[in-house]
Structure formats: C-alpha cells, structure tokens
C-alpha cells in the first residue's frame, strides 16, 4: 500500500500560514497527504525547514517510503571517500521521511526507532572507515594495511542505550563505547596502535556530530566507557574487561543489557560482550540490584534538579518525560532491573529492547501480564510524546512545554485537544509512577505485633548483629526493614519460641546477607516459606542458610508446579551443563542445579503437596538425572587424556533404594559399574590404558565428580560395597567377570541385592544386556532345587547380622527392628528371587510371596501397610534430620508434620501404631521363613 492509504492520524496546523505555505510548495499532493504536510509544517519549524530543503525528493519518497529509505541506505553504502556530505543529506531526508511516517501513524514505534538506529549504525561504520583509512594512509597502525579495513583493523564500536536496543529517539544522541582488540598487535606496537585508534575515534565522532551548513548526522556521546574521566576514548578490550571485573557497578551492568556491536569489527565486539556476560548476568537472582537501581533513580533526579521527593502531586508544565516521575526511564529501569535479577538464570530474558523485555518478563511470570501490557502501552505513548517534542525544533529535549501556548502547539502536533492530551499525560504518568514505586519502594512493613512478647528471647535477638550476614551496614539496613514482619510471622506459629530459635539457626548460618535479605524484601512470600520451614524443620532451615541460593528456584520458575518427570529433568540439567565452558564449571553447575531441585522436593513434601511415596520417587528421579547426564561429562573429560572407552563402554547400575526408585532426603547412592571391553586391548588416547585400569580409573573419576566438596557442596555420597567381592573387588567389573561371579560365587545377600538393580547411565546397549542377564539369572536361581530354603537361610542370617550390628534408635526408628521397613524389604526381595521374577520393588516382592504361598493376601496387605507406615515415618524423619525421630526432641511443627504424614493423632498413638504393625509384620515374616524351610526365628 502507498503512504496515503496507510495514514491513521494527522497533526493539526498550529500556525496556519506555515501550513498554507507548505501545501502550496507541494501542490501535487492532495487529500490526507496534503493535510499531513500542512499539519507538520504548521507545528514544527524543523520539519518545515526540511520540507523546504528536500522539496524535490519528498513526493517520490512518499509514494513508497520503505523503498525510499532502502535507496538512501544503499546510496550511503556506495559512498567512496569522505562521507560527511552524503551522511548529512541522508540524515535530512531520513529525518523528514521518518518524521512524517511517525506523525501519520504509517509506521509503528518499533519501525520508527529501528529506522533511526539502522541509519546510525551505517553512519558510524562509514565514519569509522574514513577515520581508520586516514590512519592507515599515514602508517600509524603498525602491521595493518588496506586489507584490514573491512574489519576495522580490530576496532569495534559498541552501541549502548537506545541505539543498542534499536530504540533511537527522533533527535537522539548516540552512546558509543569504542574498543580495539589488542591481540591483533605485538606488545611493543600496542601503544602506537592505541594512539591511532584514539585519533580515529575522535575523527569519527567529529564526522558524525559536527554541525556544519549541511547540518549534523548524530550527536555522539562517548562517556559510557569505563571511568571516562581518566581513560582514552578508545581503549583495549582487555583493559575494559579488567575494569568491569574489578570495579564495574550496577548501572554499568544495566547499560550492557542493551549493548551490541554496531560498527567496525563486529566479531571482536561480540567476543568482548560474551566475555563480559558473567559481569552483566549473575548466576543467581540478584535482588540487591533493586536497591541499587532505586538509589540511581534518586541520584539522577537530584543531579537533574528534578527533586528526590517521590510523592505529592505531579505538575505537567515542564515535566521531563524521560527522567521525571512516571517517565520513560522509570519503565526502562523497571524492565532492566528485573532482567538483571533473573537474566543470569534465564538467558531468554536477555533481550535488549524495552518492549521485548516486558513481554519476556510477563511470559516467564516475573511480572503480571496486565502490568506488562499497561507499561508497554504507557511506554509507546511516552515515546510518541518524546518524538513530537524533539521534532518541533530538532532538540534533544524531553521536557513538556512550560507554557499553555507550548502545550497547545504540542497538542495540535499530536492531533489532540489540549485538555484531552493533558488528562492522558497525567493519567499515564501517575499510573507508571504507582507501578514503579511499588516495585522500587515496597509499602512499609507494619511493626511486629509484640516486640516485647514473652516468647521473644532478648538474648537471641541481641546476638543477631554479630552474625556474618548482618555485619555490613547495607545488610543491616535491609534486615531492619524486614525484622518486624519476620517477628510478626514467627509470633503466629504454634510454638514461636521454637520457631525463633530455628530462625536464629538459619540467620547464624548465612555467610552473607545483602542478596538474601533483598530477595526477601522483594518477595514477601519467601519470608512466609522460611517461617514455615523454621517452624517445622529446623534442620532444613539450617540447610537453607548454607544454601540460600536455592531460594532463587522458588521465584524463578514453576517451583510449586507438578513434577516434570525424569525426561524433563535430564533435559533441564543437560541444558544447564551446556552453558558452562569447562569440566569443573559443569560439576559446580550440577551441584547448584541438584541443590535447587532437592530443596524443591523437600518443600513440596513439607507442605503436603506430595506424599512420602511420591517424594521418594522424586528424589530418585533427581539422582538418576544427575548420574545420567554427568556420566558422559566424566567420560568426555577422562577421554581427553586416555582416549575413548575401549570396547562397548561401561554402564552404571543403581542398587538398593535408588534401584527401586525410593530415595529419601539424605540417601547415599549404591552403585555398581560394569564394562565390556569386547576384546579391545586398551584405549587409544595420548596416555592409553588397559581396559581394567581404564574403567577402574574412570569409575573413580565418576565417584570424585559426585562426592568432591566444591562450591555447592557434594552431589551425593556413593557406596560401592554391593559390587562383586565388595570392597575387596575392583571398583569396575567386566561383564564377563560379573556374570561369572553372580552365577558361581555370589552370596545369597548379593543375589537379594540384585533384585533391586537397574541400569541408569552409560552405554544403553550394554545396560540392556545386563538387564537380560539379571532377568535370566533370577529366573534360574528361583528354579533351582532348594531355592526357597537357601533364601530363607540367607534372610535369617542377614536379620541376625543386622540385629547384632545396630540396635533400633528408639520406638520411632522406622527402619531397624523386626517387622520394620528393612525387614519387610528383605523378605520381599527373597520372595522376588524365589519366584524367579525380575520386577523390582517391595510391592512386587509381596505379590510374589503371595503366589509362593508364603502369606495370604490379607497378610500381604498387612506387610504392605506396615512398609508404607514405616516408609512415611522414615521419609519424614530424613527430611527433619539425619537421625531417627526422637519423641522428646520433636518441636511442635515437626511433630505436626510427622503426625500428618503418619495419619496418627499424637506421638503415643504413632508409637503404638508402629509397634502393633511391626509386631504383626514380624510374625508374618517369621511364619514365611518357617514355611520356606528355615529355622523359626524369635523376635528379639
């Protein structure tokens, strides 16, 4: 469609005589085009001047504005030699065409700002090429020639601010940072090269910003570079990176959200930005950035004389649409601060544009969708007003008129009535102000209900300032704002004295406080969660204090959503590991990732979102995901020195609780590694190894990857005593040796353990072969004559050894003792083996025992109910601590949690229920062992 058919709005001429003059000049333009020309010239002296200068060019440009702009850019790219004159003519024509398209609504805001940005990019490139060519011709860039000019001899121009985001306003300065790649020069030549790049930068800036009779191109600002008061206008990338790593501030991080290479060596510029990414995007949620951004707002207002008072009525006359209350910068700060908070964890939030940022934040639920939509609409309106203010006289201004006449002119330029425009301006500015103030300055927290209550231990509170987390002034200030709300919430728990002590334990364990307290201040729901935890599970609270970064997960995603499943976990971890550059970083990343998911499972269990059985499966899914994704990383790292795994590779078998998908919060991992060299004599790396040595050392590398104490702690403790020959055998076993051992030398308890084995990582084909062997072996063992008698003897011997090795830790020990969890699991494994079934798990074993006639269906249900009760109590105990439950030491919250999980009314009832259920189960087990041919056992 042509320009005229796309017009959606028109300015009204404020000065009719100027409008008539313009209409007469463009007599061939009729209808809406004539009204547009008249309205623009009748309001804007600047556009009127451009119309006079480009009267011959404009009519044809309005026939096809996109093609006209493309032709302008193409003509510029073809310029050979000094580009100054061509650039100024192109700027005049582009400013006129873009201005009219904006006024008429032919182009939306994004098209307008991108067109201005594209012109700025091209102008910078042409000016830089001319400036560097001048230095090359003088021989001032050592080692460089004309052939190096296409990539600017290693110099890169970074576009910052609105230019970086493709959001240039109509009469915008362009903010540039100029850098050069010092690795392109010998060390002794670096000083001379820097001097040449400094001269080239100044020449480039002069070409762009010098105001001649032909006008200017873009006013250029180079002050966003590191420490501009003392550094040259072009500096080495290494020096800039060093500055940001050691001295970079929050506002500089925010500035780099929009940064991009715009001219010169684009590849080098992108490498610099990639290297700077850890400075801009922190790995953990960075809520301390909120206070930094708020303080920055206040400093800007004070510096610009806009006042620091954020309350009171808003006066439109002379109001700054960019920096004032409710203005453009407020929306940008809001968006960029949220991006800084979350962008380190979620790379999809690292978009440069403000509107894109608002959409992305809303899509990830960082801000409500209606807030994002409203702010986007306000931003568009604010930018249109800003453009009209600047189009009037080509001034870099953001101030609304200070007189009624000036406001009338602006309203006419926007095709509005003055009173309507004022009403909308005030309404939108105040709406933005309300949103921003709630974000940057949350409502004051009311005082605690009873700061002097009997439950408050003054000695406990008095020691808080001595804790590491509260030693900095900034942390102390934030905590003082939080304290009333925290104490009020603690006072509402069922036993506030216990909750206070548990919170004290959390606070004492925090190594630092600014980030955590900022996180709490910005997200009050986390305080509620913390109080819930300290009031129920003090051990989990202490874990939280050592691993406070897991709170990121609570607000960074679907923390309370249903479980995503093993496949999604593996994909998530794989994506997380792929972001890291080296092996050690991936091990650390895996620890942080696992820690967050582990905490999530615990919170879901604590809050009753999942039951004990589901929680056990989730812990197992988590461990399996870690092993499945970490094993190839270990293999890849090991292969660098020793070559790829010889033969068919190796497979990691999960045994015990992991094998049957039933871990608890503190479980270690029972593992076996089996390999098949398939006739290979060794590996083929720089340091080759024989298969046995290769896989043994590879297994030890895997154990180290899991158990090494690194940032984020350990992943898991590992127990490999279930491998053939236990601790006396090699840590990795060949497939042939494993099969031979299981068929000819394994003990009965080792065959029992095999009923819970499954492959979870490594070579999948080998894993399938091991599973096929396991299935055949169990079927064969069950079919052998006297299998039931032998298994009964093995179980009886194991029960006796367990009783001798460790006594139950009290009446609430759900694992140890006749008829308790371990006892039921043992007899279920024996039934599985004797029945020749390969299915894993206690439920499958109990079903097999019924088929064997070891117990009736009613007795199987009794065993199942006993196992479930013991499991539920044990899962709760492990979430609350590392020991069996102590009825005397349980706090009120923990007691309520355990009773909820067990379905009992009180602790004595739970003790009775465990005793009754285990006694019945022990009788059934004793009877089953007797039927299987073993001597009858007592219940000592």
TrEMBL record:
<dbReference type="Pfam" id="PF03710">
    <property type="entry name" value="GlnE"/>
</dbReference>
<keyword id="KW-0460">Magnesium</keyword>
<dbReference type="InterPro" id="IPR005190">
    <property type="entry name" value="GlnE_rpt_dom"/>
</dbReference>
<protein>
    <submittedName>
        <fullName>Glutamine-synthetase adenylyltransferase</fullName>
    </submittedName>
</protein>
<keyword id="KW-0511">Multifunctional enzyme</keyword>
<dbReference type="GO" id="GO:0005524">
    <property type="term" value="F:ATP binding"/>
</dbReference>
<dbReference type="Pfam" id="PF08335">
    <property type="entry name" value="GlnD_UR_UTase"/>
</dbReference>
<feature type="domain" description="PII-uridylyltransferase/Glutamine-synthetase adenylyltransferase">
    <location>
        <begin position="791"/>
        <end position="881"/>
    </location>
</feature>
<keyword id="KW-0067">ATP-binding</keyword>
<dbReference type="GO" id="GO:0005829">
    <property type="term" value="C:cytosol"/>
</dbReference>
<feature type="domain" description="Glutamate-ammonia ligase adenylyltransferase repeated">
    <location>
        <begin position="528"/>
        <end position="771"/>
    </location>
</feature>
<keyword id="KW-0548">Nucleotidyltransferase</keyword>
<feature type="domain" description="Glutamate-ammonia ligase adenylyltransferase repeated">
    <location>
        <begin position="44"/>
        <end position="274"/>
    </location>
</feature>
<dbReference type="InterPro" id="IPR023057">
    <property type="entry name" value="GlnE"/>
</dbReference>
<dbReference type="InterPro" id="IPR013546">
    <property type="entry name" value="PII_UdlTrfase/GS_AdlTrfase"/>
</dbReference>
<dbReference type="InterPro" id="IPR043519">
    <property type="entry name" value="NT_sf"/>
</dbReference>
<keyword id="KW-0547">Nucleotide-binding</keyword>
<keyword id="KW-0808">Transferase</keyword>
<dbReference type="GO" id="GO:0008882">
    <property type="term" value="F:[glutamate-ammonia-ligase] adenylyltransferase activity"/>
</dbReference>
<feature type="domain" description="PII-uridylyltransferase/Glutamine-synthetase adenylyltransferase">
    <location>
        <begin position="295"/>
        <end position="440"/>
    </location>
</feature>
<dbReference type="GO" id="GO:0000820">
    <property type="term" value="P:regulation of glutamine family amino acid metabolic process"/>
</dbReference>
